[in-house]
Amino acid sequence: MKPKAIIYKKVEPSILAYIQEVCDVVYFEQLDSSNLESFYEELRDAQGLFGSGLKVDAALLEKAPRLKIVSNISVGYDNLDVPALTDRGVMATNTPDVLNETVADTMIGLMLATARRIPELDQLVKSGKWTSHLAPAQFGVDMHHKTLGIIGMGRIGAAIAKRAHFGFGMNILYRNRSRNEEVENAYGATYCSLDELCQQADFICLMVPLTPPTTKLIGDREFGLMKKTAIFVNGSRGATVDEDALVRALQNGEILAAGTDVFAQEPVNPDHPLLSLPNMVTLPHIGSATLETRQAMARFAAENFVLGMQGKLPVALLNREVFVKA
Ligand SMILES: NC(=O)C1=CN([C@@H]2O[C@H](COP(=O)(O)OP(=O)(O)OC[C@H]3O[C@@H](n4cnc5c(N)ncnc54)[C@H](O)[C@@H]3O)[C@@H](O)[C@H]2O)C=CC1
Ligand SMILES: O=C(O)C(=O)CO
């Protein structure tokens, strides 16, 4: 008999078929209030859970006593309580690296869109209000040859640094949990404190994972340190920024403009105060959302999943130490 797996996200037929080769699959294209009870029912004897975004914590694990693996179709795994999974002997996997280039492209696009006011000026043209030459008050600011501060110089941060250095001739500052000599040598990046980065950078890009220490990492104090001409962009998770503080910083002219791909609550409430600010550019969490990259992520997550379901070590195993020892 094949082990039972739950897929709780819409996946391509080829991914479904690949997983079905080794598992009996219960397939929920999405989870909502209409099917949550039947999902919990199915969890009771499921051995694998495949999807993205579901909060998997000790309370959910209580409902899933036979679980062996949780495979996330994302690199960020702030939805997973890895210590709780580890305590229960459940493998946790994610999809690092395959999305680095795409997410870095998105962040460069977001910085340019914010600096050059692309969404606002697109609306000007489409609404028929482009009736004369633009006034200087409508001009953007340059990105090339400015100083970019990257907070979180990991896999994606480094891919952003590469583009900024070679494509835009930017000077790069960075803050990380530890120094990254590769980006210093390859892109001339300089390691500095968070405060120095906030004070000196023209563009600030946040690319950290969401953890207790990074929750509201950027708030009133940090916006207060930034240049009044600074452009701040967030590609990490919404909760790494104090959104109320961001609203205040934009309204009070503490920074020039901001862009974000992520919100503390997603999808964002249409009444959220950030959405009505003219100097705020927003995206609906599309950092990795290209056809090619989403396929690569789903494939990687499925490979991790199948290996785990077969009792083998998945490639991107977050709690590897436990299973290697065992
Ligand atoms: N907007 C989107 O669609 C996407 C968002 N993400 C987010 O980006 C995050 C980063 O992804 P990767 O680069 O693959 O992760 P990574 O683990 O390679 O890099 C994260 C870096 O942040 C640093 N860091 C952690 N805590 C820090 C702190 N308090 N201060 C400064 N630096 C700190 C780490 O040292 C590490 O180098 C993911 O965890 C996810 O939340 C990832 C992919 C797509
Ligand atoms: O992978 C992630 O962490 C995302 O946010 C979506 O790609």
Written overview of the protein:
The structure is a single chain. The chain is α/β, with parallel strands linked by helices and 326 residues long. It has two domains: 4-97 and 292-325, NAD(P)-binding Rossmann-like Domain (Rossmann fold); 100-282, Rossmann fold, CATH 3.40.50. 37% of the residues lie in helices and 14% in strands. The protein has 13 helices and twelve strands. The chain has helices spanning 13-20, 36-43, 58-62, 82-87, 100-115, 118-126, 155-168, 181-187, 194-200, 220-225, 243-251, 291-309, 320-325; strands at 4-7, 24-27, 48-51, 69-72, 91-93, 147-151, 171-175, 190-191, 203-206, 231-234, 257-260, 280-282. The strands form two sheets. The protein has a seven-stranded parallel β-sheet with strand order 8-7-6-9-10-11-12, sandwiched between helices. Helix 10 (220-225) links the parallel strand 9 and strand 10. The protein is globular, with a radius of gyration of 22 Å. The model has no long low-confidence stretch (mean pLDDT 98). The structure holds 1,4-dihydronicotinamide adenine dinucleotide and 3-hydroxypyruvic acid (3PY).
